[in-house]
Amino acid sequence: EVQLVESGGGLVQAGGSLRLSCQASGFTFDDYTIGWFRQAPGKEREGVSCIGHSAYTPFYADSVKGRYTIFKDNAKNTVYLQMDSLSPEDTAVYYCAADLILNPIRLCTVEPGYLLDYWGRGTQVTVSS
User: For the chain, what percentages of helix, strand and coil (3-state, to nearest 5) are there?
Assistant: First the structure.
């Protein structure tokens, strides 16, 4: 059974940090590009950060560049998203997704109607002011 399980969300004050984890199982982790997406109420889904094969540079949305860091542990089939200097504008449900798209830029900027291979159920991140 394919699973992507997010964890690490929660409530944090502005300026604080959180680290999200995306644990993958049921598919060949190394073959897939993994991305973090977020969606806030009333807003469109946003590709936050994506990571793939080491030949590709990880992608960061402009809104998080310099504050978020994505990295993965292939031995643990896990992708992490370190989020620093959080602001209330970062409040959203964060989802991880996996797809055979090779380029992290392509994954993170994929059009909303494109059906990615796998999705997690999401984890809530709330940043208080």
Answer: 10, 45, 45
Alpha-carbon distance of 97 to 106, in angstroms, equals 13
- Using CA atoms, how far residue 29 sits from 17, 63, 84, 103, in Å, is 27, 27, 26, 15
**Eight-class DSSP state of 57:** P
- Separation CA 32–CA 75 (nearest Å): 14
User: Is 115's pLDDT higher than 90?
Assistant: no
Cα–Cα distance, 19 to 59 (Å, whole number): 17
CA–CA–CA angle 46, 39, 59 (5° rounding): 30
**Residues of the chain above pLDDT 90, percent:** 90
Alpha-carbon distances of 27 from 2, 30, 68, 75, 128, rounded to whole Å: 6, 9, 26, 14, 37
